[in-house]
Write a structure and sequence with these properties.
Mean pLDDT of chain B: 74
Strand content of chain B: under 5%
Oligomer: heterodimer
Largest interface: A-B, 42 and 25 residues
Distance between the termini of chain B: 129 Å
Number of helices of chain A: 9
Largest sheet of chain B: none
Shape of chain B: elongated
Largest sheet of chain A: none
Mean pLDDT of chain A: 86
Helix content of chain A: over 70%
Distance between the termini of chain A: 41 Å
Order of helices and strands of chain B: HHHHHHHH
Number of helices of chain B: 8
Chain lengths: ~180, ~160
């Protein structure tokens, strides 16, 4: 963990709004992306992101530095919130899935590359959504957010070896889905 | 298509700036550590709570006593002594009331109470008298002789006579 982040966390623990605000600005985009790719709905992703950071702010005193980035804690909260969401709002999600949002609803793509890129990204996003939740988590964190195996292992509470194995399987399954559909 | 590169393209996903700004404001408006109430406030609330509990216990006790002990308990504990509920006064008043029974009426009613049969005998006599009169005046109508009975001594005799 970088020292400035440690300082910010310590300040946030004393209810320093500015310090937590900086942490929010630093991590809200990646947490939002993680959630959006799992729930496939912009408003829902915004709501869950809000809940994640609110929960983090209200429980910041209980945060213990274990040598991992602050984001690992946020990802763990996010995973739990997503599980809660699917557990309690299953019916609503099924309805939302029918009104599937396009990838262009939440990605700014240059006009020149729009046609090809839109199709490709839409294809990948759908393929990710069809994977097991654990595979989704690892692919998003590893290949979209460039997180280390060690940090991912901490978040999903598995060994680093298990994470590598799951990552391999997830990639293979994703390739198969894309080739089948492509 | 390089899959890893394509996946990295998804990093372009960004949240709506306005929504995130609003969310940030709402989150930071929350107080993570609500200030605990002062000692004075705590003591005040403690007293209020205790008064409420004491009041409810007292009211419950009174209600139970009222139901179990009834008016005698009320009479004992009541600071007010009403004339209407003064037992000695009520007794004296009751004694003073003139409740002499008319013995004459009693004497008159007693024989009839003891021997109800004569009433039937009187009825039978009346019927006999009426039938005798009607027989003498109207020849077409015949009254059985059974009605012309001597005054029976008891109900059984009267009924026997009637059945005959």
């Amino acid at each position: 963990m970088i020292d400035p982040e440690k300082d910010l966390i310590e300040k946030a623990k004393t209810a320093d709004q500015t310090a937590f605000g900086i942490l929010y600005d630093q991590y809200n985009k990646q947490i939002y992306r993680f959630i959006l790719l799992k729930v496939s709905h912009r408003q829902t992703a915004e709501d869950i992101t809000h809940q994640v950071f609110l929960s983090a702010w209200l429980n910041i005193r209980g945060y213990k530095n274990q040598g991992f980035p602050f984001s690992t804690w946020l990802y763990r909260i996010a995973r739990n919130k997503i599980i809660d969401f699917y557990r309690t709002k299953r019916e609503i999600v099924e309805i939302d899935d029918e009104t599937n949002q396009k990838i262009t609803d939440y990605i700014a793509i240059d006009t020149a590359e729009k046609a090809n890129r839109t199709w490709e990204l839409e294809h990948i996003k759908k393929a990710i959504t069809s994977l097991k939740p654990e595979y989704q988590d690892i692919l998003i964190m590893r290949f979209i957010e460039d997180m280390s195996i060690r940090d991912i292992a901490k978040i999903i509470e598995k060994s680093e070896g298990a994470v590598k194995l799951i990552q391999h399987r997830a990639m293979e399954q994703l390739k198969n889905i894309i080739h089948k559909k492509g | 298509m390089n899959l890893e590169q394509s996946l990295r393209q998804l990093k372009k996903i960004v949240p709506d700036e306005q929504a995130m700004r609003k969310s940030r404001g709402i989150i930071l408006a929350h107080d993570p550590y609500p200030t605990p109430p002062s000692w004075a406030t705590r003591i005040g609330s403690l007293i209020v709570e205790n008064v409420q509990i004491a009041t409810s216990i007292a009211l419950t006790s009174i209600t139970i006593l009222l139901f179990t002990s009834g008016p005698s308990f009320l009479e004992k504990i009541s600071p007010l002594k009403f004339a209407s509920v003064d037992r000695s006064a009520i007794t004296a008043e009751a004694e003073a009331v003139d409740i002499q029974i008319k013995l004459a009426d009693l004497a008159y009613n007693e024989p009839e109470r003891l021997t109800p049969v004569p009433a039937l005998a009187v009825l039978a006599k009346k019927i006999t008298a009426v039938s005798a009169n009607e027989t003498s005046t109207t020849t077409s109508s015949t009254i059985p002789e059974a009605f012309a009975i001597e005054s029976p001594a008891s109900v059984e005799e009267a009924l026997d006579t009637l059945s005959q």
